[in-house]
Amino acid sequence: MISFQDLNGYDVKLTFEQGFFSIPSKHVLVVAKYKDKWLLTKHPKRGLEFPGGKVEKGETLLKAAIRETKEETNVDIVMLEWLAEYMVLDNIPFCKTVYIAEVGYINKDKTNFETEGALWLSSEELTQSECLSFHMKDNGMKAILKKVNEIETKWND
Taking all residues of the chain, what is their mean pLDDT, rounded to a whole number? Predict the structure, then answer.
């Protein structure tokens, strides 16, 4: 487990071990790449980040990940795989599940509900962008990206 403080000053615990936390996850985050570009979206207040959000009543984590990605980027994702989970020790602690996914279909229609749509960044652009949201800059995200890169290396062998 990795412990760190996010840029809002909250203590956060990140694990790559499924079922580690006692409180259920009610949020999702989706990490996806297509042709060596990371799928991000621009949140109107926070900046650039991976798509994600809250699970709606009666919805599974997987369905929430698919829906949130579609709503924020207009991209259909497939082959979701659990990657990590983190708990933010806010006034009311909450958990977020991180999935990696493959891009299934990129809709050309520019209709988006919550953000400015899909943005595709190279790894270099992702690490150098000054427009990243606060949670894209913390040690937890660095650990998540490192884990994704390790998995990709195994897939490419």
Answer: 91
Tell me the CB-side half-sphere exposure of residue 71, using CA atoms within 13 A.
Answer: 13
Phi and psi based region of residue 53 (left: phi greater than 0; alpha: psi -120 to 50; beta: remaining): left
Instruction: Please report whether residue 146 resides in a domain.
Output: no
CA 53 to CA 20: how far, in whole Å? 21
- What phi and psi, each to the nearest 5 degrees, are found at residue 12? -135, 140
- Domain tally, the chain: 1
pLDDT in tens, 80-112: 999 999 999 988 999 999 999 999 988 877 665
Is residue 152 domain-resident?
A: no
60 is in which domain, residue-wise? 2-122+129-138
CA atoms within 13 A of residue 93's CA, in its CB half-sphere: 12
H-helix or E-strand containing 150?
A: helix 139-156
Q: What is the pLDDT of residues 63-82, one digit of tens each?
A: 999 999 999 999 999 999 99
Which CATH number belongs to the domain containing residue 22 in this structure?
A: 3.90.79.10
CA-based diameter of the chain, in Å? Answer: 44
